[in-house]
Amino acid sequence: MASHPYASLPERSFWRSAVAERDPLDIADLWTPKWPIRQDAPVITAGSCFAGHIGRALLEEGMHWYDAEPPPPGLTAGQRSARGYRRFSFRTGNIYTAAALRQWIAWALGSRMPPGEVWEEDGRFHDPYRPTVEPDGFASPGELLRSREVTLAALRTALAEAEVFVFTLGLTEAWHDTERDTVLPMCPGTVRGSFDPGRYVLRNHTVAQVHEDLTEALAMARGVNPGLRTVLTVSPVPLTATATGRHALVATTFSKSVLRAAAGQLADEDDRVDYFPSYEIVTALPGPVALPATPGDREPSGTRGGPASGERRGFFEDNLRTVRPEGVAFVMGHFFRALRGEPARTPQAPPQPSPTTGGEDHSCDDALLDYYGPRPVPPAR
Fold first, then answer.
1. Which domain holds residue 136?
2. InterPro entries from the xrefs (predicted)?
């Protein structure tokens, strides 16, 4: 029989041997890093809410997560968290889209000027581009703009000092301010501000647009740090809500597919860009699932349309959005073991979050969009 390319492929290249015949927690070789990351190499992180887990995991692993905007003294842990400190390497808040990353870097490096607009509510002032970093708002527009300048300076420093930038893509849907030609992190009128349909327009970015925005953002960053390397990831967290008119499941699949395609294309084209499959690890590997003994044992759900109490859906909480602590540990375990060249192993799960939270990750700003969804109809008695 004539030889062909498939005859000499390793086990990891075949679905049966690499996935179907393995325990999900023992699946290995999902990522082969393009280059090593030293233990003391400054690593900066930013992106969607899932990216907030990465900096903490780097610190716990003893690596050098670079915090360019540390909190001022005197704040409690809760106050630091509420104000967006130590979530990412700079206090931009969540950066969900490649377009927003490009915008922040352009502002930080001076190729564009950020708008001076502020939103006022009840005598307090809020930043349209960081609407959640100060929950109670700023005392004056000047204080707000000075705070933003501190963040832009921190971003400049972080880009100049880092050896590796880990950026997590979260969304393709973004609200654009057509009057100021900017992209906003949230739809005005949801978190802060008011919605003007003649000014704010929803755009669902394509693969080409995401690729272009990432390419330009990284080109600007390398202008101040030619040696900067980038690891792109895609958040596994689904959309809370979509304004496209599509079903939320269809919109989520579109968004994540676009982001995955753009990130993979750029990683294939650029030796200084790598792709880490956090999205695939959480969504494609089922993880431990506790199912009812029989269909008749299933109890009515205690959550809005969610699974029965105690039942889990893979690595997600009952809301099917928030990644469970075991899932985060599993993802980061793959990351660190790949860097060390170690085989896969089952991680020890960290403590479960308090059941009173409903499993929601409150660092995800877009989670509040669920508030605007329809309420469930109680079953007839």
1. 38-288
2. GSCFA (IPR014982)
